[in-house]
Amino acid sequence: MTLLITTVFLVPLLGTMLLMFFPLKKLQYVSVPCALYSCIILCAYIPEGIHGFTHTILIWMNPLEFTILIDKLALLITLVMSVLFTTVLVFASHMKNRKFHMLILLNFSVLLLSIFSQSLLGFYICIEMAAVITYFLIIHKKTPQSINAGLIYFIFNITGAILILLSIIIRTELPSIAARLFIIGCLIKAGFAPFHIWLARAHPVAPSPVSALLSGIMVKVSIYGIIRFAPTFTVDISLLLIIALLSMLLGVFSALLQSDIKKILAYHTVSQIGFILLGISLMSDTGEIGGLLHLVNHALFKGLLFLCAGAIIYATGTRNLHELGGLAKHMPIPAVACLVGSLAISGIPPFNGYVSKCILYEASPSGYISLIFSITCAGTVASFIKLYWHTFMGSSGKKPPQRAIPFSMKMALLVLSGLCIITGIFAQHILSLVGYQIEIHVWNTAHIPQIALNIGLGVLLYGIGMKSSLIVHPPQIRLSIDRFYQVSGDAVEYAGKKFHDILLQDINYYALTIVFVLAAIYILFSL
Amino acid sequence: MSKLIILLVLTPMITTFLLSITAIPHKVEQKELMIIRTILSLSGFSVLFILLFLCASDMLSGEVYRYSLGGWDALSGIVLQLDILSFCIAVLSVVVCFFALVYSFTFMEHMRGLGKFDAFFFLMITGIMGVLVSRDIFNMYVFFEIVNISVYVLITTGRKKENYKASLKYLILESISSILFLLAVGIIYSTIGSLNMDYIAEGISLLRIEQPSLIILLFSLFFVSLGLKFGVVPLHFWLPDSYFAAPSPVSTVQSGIVSKIGIYAMIRILSLFGTLPSDMNYFIAVMGAMTIITGTLCALVQTDIKRMLAYSSINQIGVIIIGLGIGNPIAMKGALFHIMNHALAKAGLFLCAGILIHTRGTRKISGMKFKDSPGLTLSFILLSLSIIGIPPLNGFVSKLIICYGAIGAHFSEFTFIIFFSSILSSVYYFRVIQTFFPKHEKKALTPDVHVSTSTLLPIYILAIMCLLLGLFPDTALRIIDIIVEVIL
């Protein structure tokens, strides 16, 4: 029975090989069944997985044996992952590019393995491989912007990954530094506030299915890393509270100023993962389960929203909010799906965002934390009123839809919308099925004033924005953090140039240097 | 069986002579001469492969072949020795040289026309084999000279002004290195009275108490002369110029093998000194760290692809030197594995660079236009990921092992340097990789350039070897374990 679990990631790998070596016409008939297979097998493992079991397989690398560990946490995240990958592949089935399907399946397999890995080294190896694969997915359109953003994505992610690797190596020697490096590495890879540059650049230029996966899965894997492996280091997670709050605020206010649909969604990812980290850093059981539930929910509704954006871009060919409008009558299904997603992310019942946000709100202590919580929620509401109104409502924009969206896209959107509602209403059942026992008291009237307040504030914020035309003509604010990275990059380049110039001299200088080095070594050891 | 050793040196030497005969003016057609040369060089390589294959089983069981020329005793005669370390590096050298020559068949027709290229290529292999098998420090010097002179001639085969300039620089600096080496050999002969490494090791352990300053002098002479050969910062000046100017197959062999021969000699010489004092170990590791930092920073600002690869070689050699400097068995294992990985990956990258320069018509990284060739793109990506050190490729495994060695020796600062240089390496390699992707207009392509499969095949094989070594490093690491047991 344990052998069956290996097929969960071997079948997508097999699919990749099949796509690589055989010139098939109907790509989606390979990729979708492979992802669906993993999804079904994982569902079959639910009764066994909640008690947790391990399975050792020996793969490569002399010092490393790969142990698969399956417990409720891994099971929950891999389930969400396989669902999202399946729907995204269904959504992308109109794409006729072999490389694209191949890379997504390969990425799926690698990411599953990273979640199953018991050791941190195995986790590192898998996420590093996933980062390389994702780079090629991001630059898939091959425009100059996407290639640029891909490089930024790759540099940030490899830096994060290498910090994690360093923390593995030096953990016996310098445990306190190792713990910090690990946490910073995970934060960089997840795109938290000071490091969110790559996230904001990579999401808009990637193909929409890839942005859905980036935001829904890739970012979450690093947060999973914190949940799973941070306890093995001696580190105080509660310090992450500040980063969580910063991400929440920064993300939501940056989103309000954008006019690119996918950029808005990207900044909301920054703010929503702030909620997840808030739950984790509170160090309480409710907080952690709230964070985890929000992780799952965010994967679903953000995936849905990005796919909606993908459908809009497919139909109209633009990402600019102000060129769109009145799409609801042309594209009813994306309109409904987008409404579901927007309501979910704004935390309005009965959608899934409401449940997790309520749990998080209850877990967070009152005072400045709950204040920031409310402000962020209000900002989210305002930003999604803007997003929804300017695309689907109002008068028709400059760019009416040019082509109808295929059936597969509609299906993917409907499945994800359905899941957003189901996980909202049956949150408790789903959690207890996977092994998390928690009493959820959100279905009562006690939360109505809070929600009404959030919506009211959100509408107010939107109104102010419209009146002062901040929303239509956002001011160009270059965040200083962006400049910091620019300057540090320039500094390294300058150092390199200077170094290079100093070392490039005439040949008699070289002879002199040789003599000098010889003398220096001799004197050094004679002393 | 031990007579095989002398054949390892004689085979390339005889091939050189035969090839040089074809270079004398004849009345034979140019085309037939080319075929004769091709057959000669291929048969030379096949004999070498057969010889190495015959030695393989004995070598892998840890045996050592010894052969004294003319039957003289080891104290005054010339002794050749083949053990598992020299065997492994010999296999690596023959493989990489073979790929470089196969690649040059189609690519360098105009340079091979004179017969100079093939002849000196085999002379260089003679020198490399000689360094690997000689147990005698003076012979090592002689064979190093052979390598230097033949590489000098090979660099000039590009026949441009920059080639001559770079080769002159190479020649002068390498002769300084040789003089220093010879000086050290002279000092050893006058104080110890033998040139055989076994006797020298004994002599040095006695001298250590009597004349410690002499030991320091020997160490510094050897370090500077060998450091010049493999390019430790600040003795690396000739390296970027000569790698840059040399024709691609030559820079492949220079970066892949000739610099590794220097490191091989370093391993041998360091083992003469017995266990080094910890400050010398630390010194070597610090030199390695300096090499890494300089190589990385300079590679970052290069606009020329071959210069970038040259500085990246300096960077990787720094990693190897750190491994040697730390000197405990784990780090040594990592360093030896990294020698192998870097030789394979960098050889592949230089071959790729040759094709890129040829098809794009420019050496600049930006402004390259490229005809789409998925196989080449994929190989370039794999090889550069291996150099950067990204799993599951072989470069990652060896860097990881070196870092574990550094932690074992409580030198944790070096792990930071190695991996921070990995981040910057990823920047400069991906700057090249991203030029593969933008879509260009049809007219920007250069349609007349045709890349044949026989040129691409060596690159594919090298890339696949890197991937396999990364996925299943067990076999290679088991062999390296035996080496570490023998040399430490």
Please write out the topology.
The complex is a heterodimer of chains A (527) and B (488).
Chain A: H1 2-21, H2 28-44, H3 46-49, E1 53-57, E2 66-70, H4 72-91, H5 98-116, H6 120-138, H7 144-169, H8 175-190, H9 197-205, H10 208-229, H11 240-256, H12 261-281, H13 285-316, H14 332-346, H15 352-363, H16 368-392, H17 407-425, H18 427-434, H19 448-467, H20 480-503, H21 507-526
Antiparallel strand pairs in A: 1-2
Chain B: H1 4-23, H2 30-60, E1 65-68, E2 79-82, H3 84-107, H4 109-112, H5 116-133, H6 137-156, H7 161-192, H8 197-210, H9 212-230, H10 238-245, H11 248-272, H12 278-300, H13 305-326, H14 329-360, H15 374-388, H16 394-408, H17 412-433, H18 453-471, H19 474-487
Antiparallel strand pairs in B: 1-2
Structure description:
The complex is a heterodimer of chains A (527) and B (488). Chain A is mostly helical and 527 residues long. Chain A contains 21 helices and 2 strands. In chain A, strands 1-2 form a two-stranded antiparallel ribbon. The termini of chain A are far apart. Helices cover 77% and strands 2% of the residues of chain B. Chain B has 19 helices and 2 strands. Chain B has a two-stranded antiparallel sheet. At the A-B interface, helix 6, helix 7, helix 20 and helix 21 of A face helix 7, helix 9, helix 12, helix 16 and helix 17 of B.
